[in-house]
Amino acid sequence: MSNSKISKEQEERIQIFRIILVMGNTGDALTKLRERELRKYGVTPEQAGALICIHLLNNNATPSDLSKWLFREANTLTYLLKRMQNNGLIEKKIDSKKKSLSRISLTEKGYKAYAHAIEFNSIAFISQVLSKENRNQLWSLLKILRNQAFGNLGKKDVNHYSDIIDKQLLNNKAKTLK
């Protein structure tokens, strides 16, 4: 087969590879910008994500909640939470009703870090190149891909957690506007 002629199947695979490559490059670049932005506050992007989720869950998060919201394996999340606890960002307490369950809340230092975590200045600046319509379209398309990937991984409750995040964000936005 000649190098100049490619089949429709090969063309489709190249297109998919290009999409995957640009998604990965974009994610990596945004993560590096986010790391740079948060470094001055002594917080990593992973910790910032956890701080935001803990706050959205009204300082009543469980490790299981965070594992699902942040799409982290239990052992990775345990390590992250331990580091955050050692840094004084969070507090873990045993649930009063269910002793095998721990609840996670922000400390005073955690609230200060959270305030910086929600700024997203570098990413907001980069995102300005997209119109509101483009951002909504990108969100919808990425959600479709994510849901398909999660489905293939056997993650059945992704829409449930995704909807909770959206509702929490909208509730917090409404509270802020009052």
Can you walk me through this structure?
The protein is mainly alpha-helical and 178 residues long. The chain folds into two domains: 10-129, Arc Repressor Mutant, subunit A (Orthogonal Bundle); 131-178, no CATH class. Helices cover 69% and strands 6% of the residues. The chain has eight helices and two strands, in the order H-H-H-H-E-E-H-H-H-H. The chain has helices spanning 8-39, 45-56, 63-70, 74-86, 108-117, 121-127, 132-152, 158-177, and strands at 90-94, 102-106. Helix 3 (63-70) packs across helix 4 (74-86). It is globular, with a radius of gyration of 19 Å. The chain starts with 7 loop residues before the first helix and ends with a helix. 14% of the residues are buried.
Q: Radius of gyration from the CA trace?
A: 19 Å
Order of helices and strands: HHHHEEHHHH
- The CATH class label of the largest domain is Mainly Alpha
Rough outline: globular
Tally of extended strands?
Answer: 2
Instruction: Determine the CATH superfamily of the largest domain.
Output: Winged helix-like DNA-binding domain superfamily/Winged helix DNA-binding domain
Taking strands numbered 1, 2, ... along the chain, how are they ordered across the largest sheet?
A: 1-2
Number of domains: 2
Average pLDDT, rounded to a whole number, is 87
CATH topology of the largest domain: Arc Repressor Mutant, subunit A
Distance between the termini: 66 Å
